[in-house]
Amino acid sequence: MRSLLSDLILHRLEKATGNNLHQRLYQALRLAILDASITPGSRLPASRDLAAQLEISRNTVLAAYEQLQAEGYIQTRAGSGTFVNADLPEDGINAEAVPAKHSSSANLGQLSERGAKLLGRTGVAPHQWGAFMPGVPDVTRFPHEIWRKLQNRLNRKLDPRYLSYSRHGGGLALQQALTDYLRVARSVNCTPEQILITAGSHEAIDLLAKVLCDQGDTAWIEEPSYWGIRNILSINGVVMQPIPVDENGMDPPDIAENQTPPRLICVTPSHQYPLGSVMSLARRQRLLSLAVQHGSWIIEDDYDSEFRYSGSPIPALQGLQPDAPVIYIGTFSKTLFPGMRVSYVVLPRGLAAKLKIAHSELYRGGNGLTQLTLAEFIREGHYGAHIRRMRLSYGKRRNALAKMIEQELGKEFLCEFSSAGLHLILALPERIDDVALSAELEQKGVLTRALSGYYMRSTSRRGLILGYGCVDIPQMEAAFNILCACLKQRL
Amino acid sequence: MRSLLSDLILHRLEKATGNNLHQRLYQALRLAILDASITPGSRLPASRDLAAQLEISRNTVLAAYEQLQAEGYIQTRAGSGTFVNADLPEDGINAEAVPAKHSSSANLGQLSERGAKLLGRTGVAPHQWGAFMPGVPDVTRFPHEIWRKLQNRLNRKLDPRYLSYSRHGGGLALQQALTDYLRVARSVNCTPEQILITAGSHEAIDLLAKVLCDQGDTAWIEEPSYWGIRNILSINGVVMQPIPVDENGMDPPDIAENQTPPRLICVTPSHQYPLGSVMSLARRQRLLSLAVQHGSWIIEDDYDSEFRYSGSPIPALQGLQPDAPVIYIGTFSKTLFPGMRVSYVVLPRGLAAKLKIAHSELYRGGNGLTQLTLAEFIREGHYGAHIRRMRLSYGKRRNALAKMIEQELGKEFLCEFSSAGLHLILALPERIDDVALSAELEQKGVLTRALSGYYMRSTSRRGLILGYGCVDIPQMEAAFNILCACLKQRL
User: Fold this and answer.
1) pLDDT of chain B along its 491 residues, tens only?
2) Least CB-CB distance to B162: which of A7, A216, A339?
3) Same-domain check for residues A182 and A89
4) Which residue on chain B is closest to A298 by alpha carbon?
5) B131 falls within a domain
6) Which residues lie closer than 8 Å to B106 by C-beta, 6 or more apart?
7) How many structural domains does chain B have?
8) Do B211 and A114 touch (CB under 8 A)?
9) Using CB atoms within 10 A as the burial measure, which of A127, A145, B258, B483 is most buried?
10) DSSP assignment of A280-293, as one string?
11) Among partner residues B228, B293, B339, which is closest to A368 by beta-carbon distance?
C-alpha cells in the first residue's frame, strides 16, 4: 500500500514537466517542499521504499534526492534517514500562498491550496489508544452502568424535540448543570444563556475563527501550542503569531501604535498545552487589559484542568473580572470520553445570541438525548465523583511514570512546570531528533509525540510527550522499557 | 427583548457618524442593506417597535425610514409593513465585500464581516417541531426499543477504541453496512474505504468547501437551493453561481473558453431541493461530461430520496459511470432522526484517504457506539423496515395534504414536480408576499418556509414549503385551516 506522502508525490509527478523521470521527480519534490506540502524537518521515504511505491527504479529516486541535497532542500543524517531541511527560508514556508488558479481539466484529483497545506501539516495520530497516547483518558473506567440507567429512564418520557436539531445552542438542562458546575469547580461566572454546546472543541474553534475573524486577521497563539488550533485557524485564513511561553505561561508582548492588534488571543492559562505551565496572575491581568484596550477576544481553552494533583485548582481567566472579553472552552473529551463529542463554550453576554444562531446555521446541533443524560449525570453528582476517582488514579500513574523517568534516565529528563493534566514531557537534549525517535518508537508499538512538532518556528525544544491517561502502570512499564532502549542508543 | 435585527442596527448605530441621531440611523440601515446584513426582500421592524427596542423616539425612526424610502432602499406595502427593496443593484448584494480592517479598541462586540453576513442571511428556523416544519421526520415513530436493545448488547463487549476519537473516517462496521445498503437501495458503487462518516451533512459540505476550494473559487448551486449550503460555501469564501432549475433539474450552461470552470457543482438530482424535480438522464450525462472535461467535482446531496411514493427509485448520479467525479452525501437525519447527527460521504477513490485525514484534523470524529449500533440496525434489516413503514405513512400524509390544497384552494396551488420527500410546495400567485405570509403564520403557530427565500436572485417564485413529516393528519388539518384563513385574506 502506498503511503500518503508517496501518494502526494505521485500526484505532483503526474503534473510535473521535464525531460526525464528523475528531473520530474526532483521538481515534484522541490515544489512540495516549497509549498510546505512536505513539512520542514519531516523524513522522506527511504529511496528503496519510494521507488517501490512509485514503481520506478531506485536510481531515479537517488538521482532526484542527490539533486535536492546538493541544492540544500534535504539532508541525510547517518543512521536515521533523509530529512527535509528545517532551515528553509521562513517566508517560503509560513506565508499564506496566494491561491494559484486551477487550470481547467487538470483540477481533477487535486485538493485546494489550503487543503494541500493542511495535509502537509497533519497532527492527528493514526492510533488513539495505548501507551503513551497523549490526550486520551482511561475510557474503560467510565461508569457505563450508571449512564445506561440514566439514559433508559430519560428515554421513557422523551420529548420529540430532543431527537430533532438543537435550538438555543443546546439543551437547557445541560446548560444549567454546566453553569452550576463551572461556577463551583472552575470559578467561571455565567448564566445558562451564555453556554453553547458543540460537537467537540474543534467545532467551537472553527466557529470562532469564522464568525469573529476575517481572512488575514491575526491571532496570537502560544508557542508551543496544540496542533489542532493551528490547523483550524490556518484553513480559515487567520494569520498566526506565535507568542513564546515560559514557566508563567504566555508572555504577551506590547502592541505598538502602528501595529494591528490581534483579533484573537488563544491561551491555555490553567495548564499550558503541551508544556504544562500555569499563567501567573500578573500575566493574566496584563492579558485582560491588553484585550480590553485593543478589542481582542481571548479564547481560553481549559481542556484538562480538572486533573490537578497538587496545589489548589487554578480559577479560570474567564471569572477574573466581570464581563471579561474571554470565550471559555471546556470539554468532556478528557473527563469522560473523547468519542462522546460534547464540548461547551461560555460566551460573553454580547456574543451569546449571535454565536448560537451562527452555530445552528453552520453545523446544526443535535444529540439531545446525550445532552439530557449528561445533565442528569452532572446533577446527580456522578460527574464530580468520576473526576475525583480518576484524579486519584491518574495521579498514581503520573507519579509512577515520573519515577521511571527519574530512575532510568535522570531528573534532567523530566520537564515539569506543573502537576496537572494527562501527560508528562520527557525532555531531550537538543542533539536528539525527537521526530525520528518518536517515529522509531511508533514502529515498535509505543505511541508518543515529538515536542518539536508543537512549535511553529524552528527554534524548538526537543522532547517526547507521554500520555499516562489511557493505560495502567504495568503497561506503561513495558512501553517505557522499549522507549529507554531506543533512547539510550541515541544518547 | 431586542430582536436580532435591532441588535444589529444598534451595533451599526454605535459606529455610525453623523450630525444627529436620525442621520446616523439612516446611515447604519443603509450600510446594513448594502452589505446584505439585512437581506433584500426582508421586512424591517415597525417604526414603533424599532423605536422601543433602540430606546429612541419613533419620529427619529420615521425620519430615517423616509429618507431610505426616498432613495429607493426600502418600500412600504399597505397593510404588510416596510420591506427592503428586492431590486437593489445585484453587484452590491452578492459580491463578496472586501473585509474592512477593524480599527483597534472598536472591535469588541463586533463580529467579522463574514460572520455578520452569515447572521444577515440566517436560514435556521427558531422552531424544529410541529406542522408544517419542513425537513423534519416523525421521530416519535423511531423504534427506540430495538435501538436500545442493540446498544445494550454492543455495550457489553465494547472495545475502548469505540469511545475514543474515530480513525479511518468512521467505524468500519458502519462503512461496510452502508456500502451494501447504498449499492442495493441507491445504485451507489463504492468500497467501505470510500465512506467517511460525518456529524451531519453541514460538516461534510464544510470539509469539501475547505479542502477542495480556495477563497474565490466558484461553485455552481441550484436556483433555488437549500439555505445551508449557501451559508457554508459563502463563509468559506466560495463564490456561488446560481444555475436555474426546471422540471428536469439543474440545466448546466456551457462553459466558454475564457471562463473559469466551477470547482464544485452542487446538485440534488434525485429530488431537487426544494422544488422536487428529478434530473433527467440527458442532463445527468451532460453534467458528468462537463465535470470530467473541466475538472470539477459534483457534490450530489441525496438527502431524502428514500421516500418516493410513486414510480421507481431514481439511481444516484454517483453510480452512473465508473469513477465519476461525484462526491455523494447521504444522511440519517431524514430516515431516522436529525438529532442523531450522523451523515456520510462517499468519496471518489483518489480523494478518500486525503479527505479522511483532513476530516480528522479539522473535526475529529467520534460517536463510535452510535455508529456501531447503526451498523447493526442496518444489517439486521431494521433500517429498511423502518423506511418502508415510514414511506407508507408519509405517503398518506402527503396525499392528505395535497387533497387539502386542491379542495380548499385549487389545483393551481399545488406545485408538483415529483412525488417524493417530506414536503410539498404550496404555489402562490406572484403578487402574494410569501415572506410576510410565512411570518404571519408563524405568529399563529403554523410553521412554513417562504419559497422565495431559497433563491439567491430576486426573480423568484412565490410559495410556501409545507413539511408533512413530523405531525399526523388531524394536526395538519388544524394547521391548514389557519393557513387557509390567512391566505384567503390576501388573495
Assistant:
1) 456 677 777 777 776 666 678 778 887 888 777 766 777 778 888 888 888 888 788 888 888 888 787 767 788 776 778 888 876 643 333 333 333 333 333 344 479 999 998 988 887 777 778 899 998 899 999 998 899 889 888 887 778 888 888 888 999 999 999 999 999 999 999 999 999 999 999 999 999 999 999 999 999 999 999 999 999 999 999 999 999 999 999 999 999 888 889 999 999 999 999 999 999 999 999 999 999 999 999 999 999 888 988 877 788 999 998 889 999 999 999 999 999 999 999 999 999 999 999 999 999 999 999 999 999 999 999 999 999 999 999 999 999 999 999 999 999 999 877 788 999 999 999 999 999 999 999 999 999 999 999 999 877 889 999 999 988 999 999 999 999 999 999 98
2) A339
3) no
4) B108
5) no
6) A295, B15
7) 3
8) yes
9) B483
10) -HHHHHHHHHHHHH
11) B339
Q: What residues make up the domain containing A398?
A: 391-490
Instruction: Tell me: do A372 and A422 sit in the same domain.
Output: no
Does the beta-carbon distance from B162 to A358 stay under 8 Å?
no
**Which member of B102, B213, B215 has the closest CB to residue A215?**
B215
Q: Which three cell numbers stand for residue A153?
A: 429512564
Same domain, B321 and B435: no
Chain A residue with CA closest to B11: the answer is A350
Following DSSP, what letter does each residue of A83-145 receive, concatenated?
EE-TTS-HHHHHS-PPPPPPPTTS-TTPPPHHHHHHHTT----S--SSTB-TT---GGGS-HH
Whether chain B has a CB inside 8 Å of the CB on A127: the answer is yes
| Same domain (yes/no): A406, A465 | yes
- B167–A126 C-beta distance less than 8 A: yes
**How far is the C-alpha of B187 from the C-alpha of B178, rounded, in Å?**
12
CATH number of the domain within which A198 lies: 3.40.640.10
B128 is a domain residue:
no
Three-state DSSP class for residue A242:
strand
Residues B101, B211, single domain; the answer is no
Q: Do A151 and A80 lie in a common domain?
A: no
Amino acid at residue number B458: S
CATH number of domain containing A463: 3.90.1150.10
The pTM of the full predicted model, rounded to 2 decimals, is 0.80
In a domain, A137, yes or no: no
The answer for B 386-445 residues in CB contact with A (under 8 A) is: none
**ipTM of predicted complex:** 0.79
Shared domain check, B162 and B89? no
> Does B53 share its domain with B149?
no
Q: Is A263 on the interface with B (CB under 8 A)?
A: yes
At a CB cut-off of 8 Å and minimum separation 6, what does B350 contact?
A109
Name every chain A residue with its beta carbon within 8 A of the beta carbon of B352: none
Inter-chain CB proximity B360 and A124 less than 8 Å = yes
Query: Residue B222 forms beta bridges with which residues?
Result: B243
- Which residues on chain A are in Cβ contact (under 8 Å) with B216? 99
- Mark which residues 155-194 of A lie under 8 Å from B by CB: 155, 158, 160-167
